């Protein structure tokens, strides 16, 4: 890589900012294209006035009013840029997280290298470079640029996923995806079916229960259901068998009527700007073939930052970017195409043996630290500090079983291995 190598970053959320920072540090001429009018990606709150399924496809961020993080900030920071030391709370407001990313961008002087309101329309390989076609959303004009390297950092939470349940077209009430949920008071006196008890489903239930008349929380967690006793108007139900005009019949044969449905059912991974020439298949939330979940095997000057799910996002972004830069800088050479393909196939086979469906081909979850260990061992980059792994043992699953009180706990990192925890009312 020469000092004149040009690098394109698609997106200026947390992953894009991280990639831009390292690209500049490694001497690249770098630019980040961001579709919105400010940086921060999914942490940017925007009002949403339209309703229904169609509206969800046009919404950039799923951020809603009053959201607090479900992970402590101690596992959400970049290794070389910490949250302000005067912030005692660990589970902080989304606005605090956005301010942190803005401060990160200013501290590392990233803003001059970011072009806002630029939509990436097409990416394709051209003569050992990347041709990137962008649309200026203000002037409605198109521009084509060539780059040596490209980082895809556009996130994976833009296209809502809905279960294909019988009768949904018969239902005549209001239905939205959590992607467009904004204000809890919008559900005052409503009877709501919440579909899904993941992080969004549980948190939105917690937000709206003081306003709603009744909430039916439908999920498939049978052996260890979430704790909702402190929300007296929440009734847990199994998954929906089929919908009716005013409600649903559940798998256990019971039925209920409701005025609203909120689908907290995740997202479909879409990367519409990739041309067929990129030699990648994007289907059922799998991007194939990628080496170590990030490097395009057939065109290794393209990488993806942030595809793995159920990981600590900021730690993931930082590790993946530093991993990739060891190869893009010329410090290390990638394995052969055949070896990278074989490695990817071994990973996919191991997941199938564990019973994971293709939709979870990029899931790391509890094994995220094994993944970080692997990236560090392959390239010699600094690994995640042991204290982060130790913290994860305390934080896991809190949104399901301690939803009422878990955000009242705060943490303080003492050194690379140790931390202390305390109740905020004890401070």
Automatic annotation (TrEMBL):
EC number(s) on file: 1.-.-.-
SUPFAM superfamilies reported for this sequence: FAD/NAD(P)-binding domain
Top-level division of the source organism's lineage: Eukaryota
Keyword set, alphabetical order: FAD, Flavoprotein, Monooxygenase, NADP, Oxidoreductase
Coiled-coil region list: none
GO molecular function (one): N,N-dimethylaniline monooxygenase activity
Top-level class of the enzyme under EC nomenclature: oxidoreductase
Cofactor entry: FAD
Family: Belongs to the FMO family.
Protein name from the UniProt record: Flavin-containing monooxygenase
Species, as recorded: Ceratitis capitata
């Amino acid at each position: 890589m020469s000092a004149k190598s040009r690098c394109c970053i698609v997106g200026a959320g947390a992953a894009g900012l991280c990639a831009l920072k390292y690209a500049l540090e490694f001497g690249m001429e770098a630019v980040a294209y961001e579709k919105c009018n400010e940086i921060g990606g999914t942490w940017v709150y925007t009002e949403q006035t339209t309703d229904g399924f169609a509206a969800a496809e046009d919404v950039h961020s799923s951020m809603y009013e009053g959201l607090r993080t479900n992970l402590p900030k101690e596992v959400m920071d970049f290794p070389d840029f910490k949250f302000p030391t005067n912030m005692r709370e660990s589970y902080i407001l989304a606005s605090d997280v956005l301010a942190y990313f803005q401060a990160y961008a200013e501290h590392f002087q990233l803003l001059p290298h970011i072009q806002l309101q630029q939509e990436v329309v097409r990416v394709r390989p051209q003569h050992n470079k990347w041709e990137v076609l962008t649309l200026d959303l203000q002037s409605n004009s198109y521009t084509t640029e060539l780059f040596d390297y490209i980082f895809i950092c556009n996130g994976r939470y833009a296209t809502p996923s809905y279960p294909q349940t019988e009768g949904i077209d018969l239902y005549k009430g209001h239905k939205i995806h959590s992607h467009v949920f904004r204000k809890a008071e919008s559900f005052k006196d409503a009877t709501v079916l919440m579909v899904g008890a993941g992080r969004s489903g549980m948190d939105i239930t917690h937000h709206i229960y003081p306003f709603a008349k009744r909430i039916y929380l439908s999920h498939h967690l049978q052996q260890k259901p979430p704790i909702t006793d402190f929300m007296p108007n929440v009734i847990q139900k199994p998954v929906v068998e089929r919908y009716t005009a005013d409600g649903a019949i559940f798998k256990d044969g019971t039925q209920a009527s409701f005025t609203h449905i909120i689908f907290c059912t995740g997202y479909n991974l879409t990367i519409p700007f990739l041309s067929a020439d990129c030699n990648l298949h994007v289907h059922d939330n799998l991007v194939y073939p990628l080496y170590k979940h990030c490097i395009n095997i057939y065109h290794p000057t393209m990488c993806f930052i942030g595809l793995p799910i159920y990981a600590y996002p900021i730690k993931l972004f930082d590790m993946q970017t530093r991993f990739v830069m060891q190869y893009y800088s010329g410090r290390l050479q990638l394995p052969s195409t055949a070896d990278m393909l074989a490695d990817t196939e071994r990973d996919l086979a191991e997941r199938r043996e564990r019973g994971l469906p293709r939709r979870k081909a990029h899931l790391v979850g509890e094994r995220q630290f094994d993944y970080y260990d692997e990236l560090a061992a392959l390239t010699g980059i600094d690994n995640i500090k042991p204290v982060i792994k130790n913290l994860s043992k305390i934080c896991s699953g809190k949104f399901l079983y301690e939803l009422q009180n878990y955000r009242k706990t705060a943490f303080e990192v003492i050194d690379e291995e140790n931390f202390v925890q305390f109740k905020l009312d004890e401070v």
